[in-house]
């Protein structure tokens, strides 16, 4: 079987880390199986869908290193949905219903009060043509429901194993709104059939939808794709992310300086048996990750884990790649990069640190340390310098001043960098050089 998967976001907000989970998992599955990846915009909600959000989603995919084999918009495919609608109406699987939202709400409350499940009672199926004409004369417009078989729909889930959804305990879903626009449950099935989608990989919150959609596939005379429902990525408190609230949006993570590979790793590996660690690229993750490794429990995102992972990726960068990203900042050398890298977790922190420590440091010398700093200046070794210079110099200072520990090292750090903490001075000293060091010890 030639694998075809799709990612179908609605362009009604920015993608967040939770949205990235099915996105990356679909991409990895396609890459592992030499398959096809489709980006399909669910933009039939014309009120909330915007071109700006669609463009933002494409930017997010490009940043993550995901290149769709095909991009489509549901708003361009209305004739397909119309044809499927007409077929299902003719076969009696779609029927018009005229209840208002308030009327439906009252029905649900009444059912609960009587101890019955609050599902739609199919009253619309009893309407005569005369009833419908009268309702429409009153100005009512119908919404259209798909008539479920009301049975146990069983399927083998790639991740969760054997699943059964009882559509008899569900309301017939509304698939066409009063204004004639289509809902995703319907259009998704029509598109999946037309595009030959073989696997649908999505969050476990869609399991119940799968029963409905399998019945829709069957009603349209098509075999169902293979489904896989993964655990959802949540925040540290176990809450879901919100696209409209911008919770950990990919654009914000990008602006904050996180590496796209770190974000992709967190989105896909969190909540699996694989360790969260650096990988060279997405293909390397694809080769290791099996759906059997995805936990059936929650997948909680830890911001500290992202920070640590990002740091490991940044620290492993070679200097050529760093220069391509940050440019020539004050003639920064590879030696300076090696001295500074362990003190940053994001590459965006490199330039401020370099400027603060190497270029524009403001020496700090306490009154009680002035004699000690004068001695440090007098004993500063001649060049050339390397990482052994710091040890030699502080060894002499320890012997001559009697200082040791913090009393020895902190005044030197403050004089050379103006900071209480920072890069290891044995690595930084050769970067500063003797001339700069002498000036800062003055």
The whole-angstrom Rg is 31 Å
- Tell me the series of helices and strands, N- to C-terminal: EHEHEHEHHEEEEHEHEEHHHEHHHHHHHH
In percent terms, what proportion of residues is strand? 5-15%
Overall structural class, as computed from helix and strand content, comes to: alpha/beta
Helix content: 40-55%
CATH homologous superfamily label of the largest domain: HUPs
How much is the average pLDDT?
Answer: 94
List the domain count as a whole number. Answer: 4
Describe it for me?
The protein is of the alpha/beta class. It has four domains: 1-72 and 182-316, Rossmann fold (3-Layer(aba) Sandwich), CATH 3.40.50; 80-176, Glutamyl-tRNA Synthetase, domain 3 (Alpha-Beta Complex), CATH 3.90.800.10; 319-359; 367-440, Arc Repressor Mutant, subunit A (Orthogonal Bundle), CATH 1.10.10. The chain is 46% helix and 12% strand. The chain is built from 18 helices and twelve strands. It has helices at residues 17-32, 51-64, 78-90, 101-113, 129-137, 184-195, 207-219, 250-255, 260-269, 282-288, 303-315, 319-326, 334-340, 350-359, 370-379, 389-401, 406-417, 425-440, and strands at 4-7, 36-41, 70-73, 94-97, 143-146, 152-157, 161-166, 174-176, 199-203, 226-230, 233-234, 299-300. The chain has a three-stranded parallel β-sheet with strand order 1-2-3. Strands 4-5-8 form a three-stranded antiparallel β-sheet. A two-stranded antiparallel ribbon has the order 6-7. α7 links the parallel β9 and β10 (226-230). The chain is elongated, with a radius of gyration of 31 Å. The protein starts with a strand and ends with a helix.
